[in-house]
Design goal:
By secondary structure, this protein is an alpha/beta fold. The chain has helices at about 5-10, 15-25, 30-45, 50-55, 75-90, 105-110, 130-135, 160-175, 185-190, 195-210, 225-235, 250-260, 275-280, 295-310, and strands at about 60-65, 95-100, 120, 140-145, 155-160, 180-185, 215-220, 240-245, 270-275, 290, 315-320, 325. It is elongated, with a radius of gyration of 25 Å.
């Protein structure tokens, strides 16, 4: 690995002079600067992030704030993270991943240093306590998720309300009259996590619009919980013939649980889901689903940040419309 001392030796100057050329902290002659730049080019030296920050007031680093709170399905979160990292590299940016609870104090700690140029925040709550700070931070930010009010912010996500509606519309179109939503773990709703709340809003609105009997059941993301919630649903809704699942780890265990209780999918019970497409396709009975566009959301979040860093105006709200793909898990309701 090429060091600053190697550059200094090639340019015939001291290491401190190379540092001054990179940081601009002290004036140096044009001839010396040219020798330093030529040595850097010949040796392929890449200054570390701190030196780049001093030289250009930019670190070429984005912060991705992903609090790994209870109830979060980490594999899905990591799909978003991989997309952010991959896209950031196309713009010659690295990504600093922050997985602890980063409230206002944590955001100040990162934003008030030269560590990062901008921030992407996930696991957005309807009344997120970070919002007031984000609206006044000098460093640009993008939220993957929509709080109750996105005014003065830049937000992008799947339209989860429309996704909940799309699943119910599909079931209603097949003649189903009693439906249930098996949702995220209870703590996700207690925090008022935005995407989960919006799925419930869409599910309930569409069910009411079609005059369907409906129920919402938060559920722990544990295989053993699938049997419990399946039994509860059938006990409380004997006429149930349609289920929407918004809880990735429970998708296949829930289908197994219903079949163990004597309901065939899709002969007796149609199942839809909001989940990654590869998961819906890999289940024993391929599931009709609204795909989570994690790659597109992550890519576009970075693109929005790059435009903001360049001083280009961007929309406050970018909602991606849901795309429902019908598969073997749904069928017309038996007469």
């Amino acid at each position: 690995m090429v060091k600053i001392t190697d550059v200094a030796r090639r340019a015939g100057v001291s290491p401190s002079t190379v540092s001054y050329a990179l940081s601009g902290k002290r004036p140096i002659s044009e001839e010396t600067r040219r020798r330093v730049e030529e040595a850097i080019r010949q040796l392929g030296y890449r200054p570390h992030a701190g030196a780049r920050a001093l030289a250009s007031s930019k670190s070429n680093v984005l912060a991705l704030v992903v609090p790994l709170r209870a109830g979060i399905h980490v594999p899905v979160v990591m799909q978003f993270a991989v997309s952010v990292v991959t896209t950031a590299r196309r713009y010659d940016h690295d990504v600093l991943l922050l997985t602890q609870e980063e409230g206002e104090e944590g955001l100040h700690r990162v934003a008030d240093t030269a560590l990062v140029d901008a921030l992407i925040l996930m696991d957005v709550q309807l009344h997120d306590p970070r919002l007031p700070l984000l609206r006044v931070l000098e460093r640009p930010s993008v939220m993957i998720g929509f709080p109750a009010s996105s005014e003065g912010l830049t937000c992008i996500d799947l339209d989860f309300k429309a996704a909940g509606e799309a699943c119910v519309e599909h079931l209603a179109g097949l003649g189903h009259r009693a439906v249930a939503l098996v949702g995220s773990p209870p703590e996700v709703y207690v925090r008022q996590t935005a995407f989960a709340q919006r799925v419930v809003q869409g599910f309930t609105a569409a069910a009411d619009r079609h005059g369907l009997a409906s129920a919402v059941h938060p559920c722990e993301a544990l295989p053993g919980a699938a049997r419990t919630v399946a039994e509860q649903l059938l006990r409380e809704q004997p006429a149930l013939t349609g289920v929407v699942v918004h809880n990735e780890p429970l998708l296949e265990p829930l289908i197994d649980a219903f079949e163990q209780l004597g309901l065939r999918v899709p002969g007796d019970l149609s199942v839809t889901a909001i989940c990654p497409e590869e998961l819906a396709e890999s289940v024993r009975v391929p599931v009709t689903s609204v795909a989570l566009p994690s790659a597109e959301v992550g890519t576009r979040a970075v693109e929005l940040l790059m435009k903001k860093l360049d001083g280009t105006a961007v929309p406050e709200a970018t909602l991606l419309p849901p795309r429902l793909t019908a598969r073997a898990s749904t069928a017309p309701r038996n007469a």
